[in-house]
Amino acid sequence: MAVFAAMMGLADAALIAWWMGSALGVALVIGVAVGIVLSIAWALRRYLPEISIGLVVAAVGLASVIPRSSATALSSLLLALGVWSIWFLTYDVWFTGRANKEVISPVTTLGGDGRAGRALSVYHQGRGPGRFQARMQRAFAEGLQARGWQVDITTASRQTPTDLSRYDLVVLGAQAYNWRPARPVIDYVDRVATLRNKPVVAIVSGGGMTERAMQVLQAHIVQSGGLIVDAIEIWTSRDNEARHGLRDPVEIMRRAAAHVPLPPHLKTA
Question: Hey, which end of the chain has fewer CB within 10 Å, N or C?
Answer without folding.
Answer: N
